[in-house]
Amino acid sequence: MSFKIYTDGSCHGNPGPGGWAFIVVANDEVVKEKSGSMEKTTNNQMELSAAIQGLFYFNEHVESKEVELFTDSKYVIDGINSWIHGWKKNNWRTSTKKPVKNEELWRTLDELNSKLTVNWIWVKGHSGDIFNDKVDLLANYATLGDCIL
């Protein structure tokens, strides 16, 4: 069985109220969708939270440990595929010796990533990918829900 996770984060203001969402798909059928929100956050934090929540769910509820994770966030893709190796080598410092922003989220994502075989795939946002468009709506709805409260 082929598994995919679609993730997205949203934020109104930066910082501001934000939302995250993920959808787990097996053989083109939705297995699980989930979203959440935070009152004061950033878009990057929500993008990371979406990936973390999706991988956490997958690790806890799906027997397979192989998954493709789709995100429209270059921040997440570049961070997990490239930057994180240098950060860990430099004790969670950037190449300019500054602390890594969102370090705790990155550490959590790295831990989950190490438990699974994840193929990280960037997908262009708002490009007609049905699951990416749906997860975008879920993240935005979660963000707006926080604004209404």
From TrEMBL:
Domain RNase H type-1 residues, every copy: 1-144
Source organism of the structure: beta proteobacterium KB13
UniProt cofactor(s): Mg(2+)
Record's protein name: Ribonuclease H
SUPFAM superfamilies cross-referenced by the UniProt entry: Ribonuclease H-like (SSF53098)
Similarity comment: family membership: Belongs to the RNase H family.
Subunit structure: Monomer.
The enzyme's E.C. designation: 3.1.26.4
Keywords, sorted A to Z: Cytoplasm, Endonuclease, Hydrolase, Magnesium, Metal-binding, Nuclease
